[in-house]
Amino acid sequence: MPGAVRVAIIDSGVHAAHPHVGGIAGGIAIDDAGRESGDFVDRLGHGTAVTAAIREKAPDADLFAVRVFDRTLTTRVATLVHAIDWAARARMHVANLSLGTANAAHEAILADAVARAAHAGVIIVSARDDQGVRWLPGSLPGVIPVQLDWTCPRDEFRPADVDGTTVFRASGYPRPIPGVPPDRNLHGISFAVANMTGFVARARAAHATLDAVVRALVA
Length: 219
Hints:
Blueprint: E1 6-11, E2 26-30, E3 36-37, H1 46-57, E4 62-67, H2 77-89, E5 94-97, H3 107-119, E6 123-127, E7 129-130, E8 133-134, E9 143-148, E10 157-162, E11 165-170, H4 189-204, H5 210-218
C-alpha cells in the first residue's frame, strides 16, 4: 500500500493542537539567516487557518509545517527558496504556498527552485495572480496556478483556460469558525490556494505526476 500524501505548508507555522488541524506529521522553521529549527509554532494564525483548510479536504494526508513567517507575513526570497528546497529534500509530494511576490527580479531564482522541486516530484500550488497583479512563483510553469473565485463553494473548484494554461479557481474562505461572520474571519487568495491544495493532495494520492494530477482534476 502506498504511504500517505505528504504536504509541506510553507507559511507562518501551525498550532498542531487546533481542533481544525488535529495534529501534524512534523515541521521545521527557517529564519532569515537560513537557520533551521524545530520551532514551527504559529504566532500569527495564518498558517494554522491554511492548514485547517487543507486538512478539511485531505484528512488522510501527512501535513508538515514549514515556518518562514515569524512576527509578520513577510520573508526573504532566499528563505522561501530554502523552504522549497527543504520540501524537495524531505520528499514532500505537494507544497502549499499561500504566499508570493510580485517582484519580477525574483523570477529567475524562484523558477530554478520550482524546477528543482519538480525534479524531486513536488507539486507546488500557489496563486497565479490577484487583483490584476501577477504573482511568483504561482505564475511560473511547473506550478499548479490558482485564482480566487468568491462565487465558488468551498467544497468545489473550477478549472479554467487562461491564455492556454489550465488555472484552478477556488473559494477564498477558510474553514468557518462558529460565531464569526465570514467577512470578519481571515479570507482571500491565501485560502483559495489552501482549498485547492486539499483537492490536489487528494488527487496526488491516486496519480504520481503533475500532468496526471492536472488531468484528473480537469476530468
